[in-house]
Amino acid sequence: MEESKKLKDELMLKDSTVWERVDEAEKEQIYDYCEGYKYFLNNCKTERESTQFIISQAIKNGFISLDEAIDRNLRLIPGSKVYVNNKDKSVILAVIGNTLIEKGMNIVAAHIDAPRIDLKPTPVYEEGGLALFNTHYYGGIKKYQWVAIPLAMHGVVIKNDGQKVNISIGENENDPVLYISDLLPHLSKDQMEKKAAEVITGEGLDVLVGSIPYPDKETEQRVKLNILKMLKEKYGIMEEDLISAEIEIVPALKVRDIGLDRSMIGGYGQDDRVSAYTALTAILSVENPMHTCLAVFADKEEVGSMGNTGLQSHFMENTVAELLVLTGNTGEIYVRRALANSKLLSADVNVAYDPLYADAYDKTNTPFLGKGVVLTKYTGSRGKSGSNDANAEFVGAIRAIFNSSGVVWQAGELGKVDVGGGGTIAQFVASYGMEVVDCGVALLSMHSPYELSSKADVYMAHKAYSAFYHNA
User: Fold this and answer.
1) Tens digit of pLDDT for each residue in 37-80?
2) Where does the secretion signal sit in this chain (predicted)?
3) Which one is the CATH code of 16-114+268-471: 3.40.50.300, 3.40.50.1370, 3.40.630.10, 3.40.50.720?
4) In terms of pTM, does the model score above 0.90?
């Protein structure tokens, strides 16, 4: 018996939770750390709000903008800290290391967009005595989850004169909220016979915004007119201004502790703001590193990393080129060398085993809540399509770093083969030739309006990214 126990401890994977493997002092650190995370989730429900928060924290910790460094012709030296704001929707933080950038960087890359509902360019219309916003959903959602819940409106409007107007309605407890209606059970016979994907259609996600008509009975579309009048009075905007706007409809739900033991967190946008927050706190702790460290916070991952703020753009590549110039190296070859020699953690979430839907998982290769940050060697679907599939050597190196740094981690896939699948930014950044592996927190109810994470896993993600910055 004693010999078999010794062999088991030596040869088999550890199956205990974070809570069983940390002492009381670290348990307190887990709870304390997650209070900051909850604040971030409550106050950063869009990529623009996340960018603003990240930059504010960076400035408090001694970072200066790259534009300022360029304007002042500053030479960046080991320990220098800079940030790059890309159109207020993505951002990079960099801490210059003691080795040449061309020798490679340690990079953690997360995304700060999340599934949501966007307004169409001409959104306001009236039907049946109600004013509504016409919408187009963003990212992979189960549309039926977004009806009959309180919703908030966040975003920016660019007026004809170029003025930017920020909008946030529905977060303050005294604010009104918005709403998407559903059909009552008494009349739902035909609806209930549809497939889940068809119960609510994309065009059926229009948002209810008002019902009081403008007083002039001779005017048409009086409820719409009254809503436009209110927007004019509060924000100084007209209907045409909404064409040059980015308005997002998100759940008006506050982050709460989940469970009688308060061990979990419920809230919107944890895919992937859990990785963004933990990457942020990790890089803010970096001082005078061996290798230059980057934290990348990207937009558009949920729709394929497209556009000039997603990681299929040259945003990260251009930033590295600028850093090289300010550290004394110029030329495209240095950019190529720097990227090819780098190591990157694709900081994105995975799925946690859910006993209520056990048939969707290969239990021996699925992450579990509370068992630590997840290493995901490959994602993709239909035979790893759209996956990076990390090299064994790099996975081994990351394992060694985590094991030597007290990081509780686990390995896992995104559900059973051929059941579904998904992708991350890993495949795009790997095209530079750098070593990349996915590493993040396992969630329940991913892409729903109210996702769930384990506080223990959130803290271990921070600890994992910190260990990577200091030891890779």
Assistant:
1) 999 999 999 999 999 999 999 999 999 999 999 999 899 999 99
2) none
3) 3.40.630.10
4) yes
